[in-house]
From TrEMBL:
Protein name: Fe(2+) transporter FeoB
Record Gene3D superfamilies: 1.10.287.1770, P-loop containing nucleotide triphosphate hydrolases
The FeoB-type G domain, residue ranges: 3-164
Transmembrane segments: 283-308, 473-497, 552-576, 582-602, 641-660, 680-698, 705-725, 737-762, 774-797, 809-829
Taxon lineage: Bacteria, Pseudomonadati, Spirochaetota, Spirochaetia, Spirochaetales
Organism: Treponema porcinum
Length: 836
């Protein structure tokens, strides 16, 4: 059998990719907006030897205005494809056939897959396929790519047409005067153009298609003659040739449609229309969007997500967990009782210290409670010391003390009496002065670090290697992997919103908003794609034909929190804000706000001025996505994240571990203890540049270093902080809580959210900008904007909360923060300069 290539062409959202996947068994990304498929993708058809199909970008016509249209038509004109399978969305047949009329001019056999036939039938519309086929002069097959109906038949027909040979001439179908002009131009074409293609070239020349004009070396005289034919036609019709021909095509189509399509009559409003009336309502659309996205981030990062992430962090990558939570309840009760009792004891020790009572007996008693290996005599000695300590206080004596809630970090004031102390001591004794061990309750599964540590002990692993594995790799990579559940849940929601059709509405809604500021909604599609990963997001900007808009979009797309930024957002929410639910959604809206504000500001500068590109977008009908598809998409994104954790993040954590556990102490170089990290190489580097971040409030070396490793991959922020703030999650959270205030924490979040993205995305920016100067402008803008926003958050945050400390650095920083804020507000509200 001969080799054969079939090109899948059609409007965006007509189902090309779904069809491609069904034919090849591949898993291309199925998206609902233009630009998801920018490059063509090839695959072998299952069960048909030697037949390949090509998934072309979605296009509405074959004009030379967008990269997708150029990619498609160059490919279709080349010798490669032997037939075109034109996917036509049957529920939108009029619009879709416009492209069909152009595809048929390319001299290749065209077979129409009348797709979404399930939707057509459901709506109750009737399409006379036989008649359609004979009117158009090509084969038409009813298909439903989603349900797998008619796919084989469509492919079969395309193969058969391809085998018949190349020549496929379209019938004349325009009004007489236009046909006359076409054939006149056709006669002037160079002779090497094949007869089947002469009509196509003639029409393109009439339309003054610059790309076609350039590709042909016309005689000067012929060119002049063609120009005069076009001008004559324009004069007669009082319109330009491009519009004339567009009209002709639509007239032709509407004649055909009126003959073979019967729409179900009556004022029937589909469910999709009903939903859209609410969801895209002028006033409700934005609030609904805000609530939906808020819920998505809230649920995945804060509620459902944390349940799994806590388990992953504290259990799987921590000490361990209770299998099926058996024993968890009774352990928590015991642990609570024990820690309440210790708090009472501590309160009295502090009280005794302050009143000059002798506490040495308690303090010097063997610290049985802190060491599992203490002998029984030691325990008895300490118990006696505690009892006699407690006996010194009156039963009615009241002592008050502060208690910090571990989860919310809220401080409450409690009081205990002398008799409480005596009870507390006996409770402590009943536990043998030893903190309850979760492993003694229910079924305990030890965490990965514990298992690894025991394993390494058994094989007698060298200390440094053990430290590398536990304090470096497990602490770093484990900290990152611990956030996988949250990310998977987020991806699940995003995939669901995307495939049910809601995301296309968002692009549509935001186009309305963007347009008011002179921006195109097209700029928002890369952002939607970028919530998964910035790299495809940046690539999706290729669909924007206006160069200024495209550059601006490349610059701002990565402001949106991508999947890899979720871990550090969740970590900051957990460690610094006690798991507050507003943190993650606020990061999302901060990203959107940054994009909008940047867009408005940049558009008013000379570099980016210009009218917004037009934006056409088809809103697909809502449909319930299949669970398989959503899970698949979630897993695809999640898996690439896990792979990244095993490679680039693993390497980065090893480097960070080495740099943070080695350094100079007492003049000699060597491995450091955990509490000597301040002398490490990394601390040296971090301290040298930490001043840069001092005005932002997080000028400590740990945060500085984390921001830098974040440039390799954003997950590294979490991995690095995991290593630098000690290994297990609880301690990391405590140490981070101590190192940041709410304000500096949010400034840190804002900076790392908005600054230059990871290496992979930086690479994508470089490729897409394809211009060194523009590349550096983009990186500089991102870092500069991030710095300014974090500066404003920190300085004004301090002023608002009344924690502003008067010192030269703060005063200067505040002046700059206010100045930048005023400048930004001015740039946003200032009317755009009218261009001459
Ligand atoms: P492309 O832009 O042409 O590649 O279109 P996609 O393959 O990405 O499909 C767009 C949307 O239409 C997806 O949500 C598909 O699930 C859906 N879709 C594709 N084919 C059909 C079909 O035959 N019937 C229905 N109901 N939906 C379809
Ligand atoms: Mg596609």
């Amino acid at each position: 059998m001969t080799k054969m290539k079939i090109a899948l062409a059609g409007n965006p959202n007509s189902g090309k990719t779904t069809m491609f996947n069904a034919l090849t068994g591949a898993n291309q990304y199925v998206g609902n907006w233009p630009g998801v498929t920018v490059e063509k993708v090839e695959g072998k058809v299952r069960g048909r030897d030697g037949v390949t199909v090509t998934d072309l970008p979605g296009i509405y016509s074959l004009s030379p205005y967008t990269p997708e249209e150029v990619v498609s038509r160059t490919y279709l004109l080349s010798g490669e494809p032997s037939a075109v399978l034109n996917i036509v969305d049957g529920s939108n047949i009029e619009r879709n056939l416009y492209l069909t009329t152009q595809l048929m001019e390319l001299g290749k056999p065209v077979v129409i897959a009348l797709n979404m036939i399930d939707v057509v039938n459901k709506k109750g519309d009737k399409i006379d396929v036989e008649r359609l086929s004979s009117l158009l002069g090509c084969k038409v097959v009813e298909t439903s790519a989603l349900k797998g109906k008619g796919i084989d038949k469509a492919c079969e027909k395309a193969c058969r047409e391809a085998e018949k040979g190349e020549s496929f001439a379209v019938r004349p179908c325009f009004s007489a005067d236009v046909e006359e002009a076409v054939s006149a131009v056709s006669g002037l074409l160079p002779s090497e153009i094949k007869p089947v293609l002469r009509r196509w070239y003639a029409i393109k020349l009439l339309e003054r298609d610059s790309a076609v004009l350039k590709s042909l070396s016309l005689h000067e005289q012929a060119a002049l003659k063609i120009e005069s034919i076009a001008a004559d036609l324009e004069k007669k019709r009082e319109d330009d040739t491009e519009s004339i021909i567009t009209n002709e095509r639509y007239n032709y189509i509407s004649k055909i449609v009126s003959e073979c399509v019967v729409k179900k009559s009556g004022g029937h409003v589909s469910l999709t229309d009903k939903i859209d009336r609410v969801v895209t309502n002028r006033f409700l659309a934005l609030p609904i969007f805000a609530v939906v996205m808020w819920l998505v981030y809230f649920v995945s990062v804060t509620t459902v997500g944390t349940v799994f992430t806590d388990w992953a962090n504290d259990g799987l990558f921590g000490d361990g967990w209770h299998l099926f939570t058996i024993g968890a309840g009774s352990y928590e009760e015991a642990a609570g009782e024990y820690s309440d009792a210790s708090a009472v004891l501590d309160a009295f020790v502090t009280y005794a210290d302050s009143t000059g009572t002798d506490t040495s007996a308690v303090l010097e008693a063997p610290e049985a409670g802190e060491d599992e290996t203490s002998s029984e005599e030691d325990v008895v000695l300490r118990e006696e010391a505690l009892v006699s300590f407690a006996a010194q206080f009156d039963d009615d004596l009241e002592v008050s003390y502060q208690v910090t809630d571990e989860e919310t970090l809220d401080e409450t004031c409690e009081t205990a009496t002398g008799s409480d102390l005596k009870t507390a001591v006996s409770i402590l004794s009943s536990y043998g002065l030893l903190e309850p061990d979760p492993a003694d309750y229910g079924i305990w599964v030890p965490g990965i670090p514990v298992v690894i540590e025991n394993g390494l002990d058994v094989i007698g692993c060298a200390d440094w290697l053990k430290a590398l594995i536990l304090d470096g790799i497990v602490a770093g990579v484990g900290a990152v992997l611990g956030f996988v559940p949250q990310m998977l849940i987020l991806f699940f929601f995003l995939a669901w919103l995307e495939s049910c059709g809601y995301m296309s509405r968002i692009a549509f809604i935001l186009d309305r908003v963007f347009r008011r500021f002179g921006l195109s909604g097209k700029s928002f599609i890369p952002v939607l794609v970028g919530t998964g990963c910035g790299v495809p997001g940046i690539m999706a900007s290729r669909t924007i034909e206006n160069q200024n808009d495209r550059r601006m979009t490349i610059m701002t797309t990565t402001f949106i929190p991508c999947g890899a930024k979720v871990p550090f957002i969740a970590m900051i929410a957990g460690a610094i804000f006690g798991g507050a639910g507003w943190v993650a959604p606020s990061a999302y809206f901060l990203g959107i706000g940054a994009i909008l504000v940047s867009g408005i500001m940049l558009k008013k500068t000379k570099l980016f001025a210009g009218d917004p590109a037009p934006f056409f977008m088809e809103l697909p009908s809502y449909h319930l996505p299949t669970v398989g598809n959503v899970l698949h998409s979630m897993w695809e994104r999640g898996w690439s994240f896990i792979k990244k954790a095993g490679t680039i993040i693993l390497l980065a954590t090893i480097l960070v571990w080495f740099l943070s556990y080695f350094g100079w102490t007492d003049g000699s170089f060597g491995m450091l203890e955990e509490d000597q990290m301040d002398s490490s190489i990394l601390a040296l580097i971090g301290n040298a540049i930490a001043w840069i971040f001092a005005p932002l409030g997080f000028g400590n070396w740990q945060a500085t270093v984390a921001s830098i490793t974040g440039l390799i991959a954003k997950e590294n922020i979490v991995g690095t902080l995991g290593i630098l703030y000690n290994s297990d999650t609880a301690t990391v959270y405590q140490n981070m809580g101590a190192a940041f205030t709410g304000i500096t924490g949010f400034a840190f979040l804002a900076f790392n959210l908005l600054c230059a993205p990871c290496f992979a995305a930086i690479g994508a920016i470089k490729r897409e900008m394809n211009d060194t100067k523009w590349f550096w402008r983009a990186i500089a803008y991102q870092c500069g904007f991030a710095y300014v926003v974090a500066l404003i958050v920190n300085q004004l945050g301090m002023v608002i909360t009344g924690t502003f400390v008067l010192n030269p650095l703060n005063v200067i920083s505040l002046v700059f923060a206010v100045a930048f804020l005023v400048l930004i507000v001015y740039m946003v509200v200032r009317p755009a300069k009218k261009r001459a």
